[in-house]
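quick one before i forget lol
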Amino acid sequence: MDEPPMTLVGDQPKWYVMRDLKRANAKHPAYKILGEMNMKIFTPMVWKLSVKQGKRVREKVPFMADLLFVYDTRHTLDPLVELISTFQYRYMRGSHGAPMTVRNADMERFIKAVEATENPYFYTPGELTPDMIGRNVRIIGGALNNYEGRLQKIRGSRSRRLLVELPNLLTVSVEVSPEYIQLL
């Protein structure tokens, strides 16, 4: 009877949660370096006004300077972590050295939600309070068809925003058209 071939630990690609300890204004942060290497990465980006050479410039910058997600294998990432001293895995407390990962389906859903809106708002777990969270809904139609989540309560606003979460990491609030919202 043939036995299945041995596989190396970490040879399955996963979404790893990584840290980039370079300064926020570094010319070559890890997300740019890895992008130039054609690696599949995701960094939550926001628009920010800054002054460069005396002129105000609107540019996209990482929401959290030290946060990025990389879809690859430990076999590929471990040598990069050793080579680049400011590039590290994020670890869960009490995990005994196991790097943080995000399920592929959760990450793809999160990325799609972020890309579906022009102005996503990001929240860390401590920033999202119970009084900000509204009713459970499902989106019927549009770019986020079949997404389920909670509406964000925004006083005095006509726009409706859906909260999409990467559990214990990050939540994004994306604008949805009211006609696509179905209350659950």
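fyi DSSP finds three helices and 13 strands in the chain.
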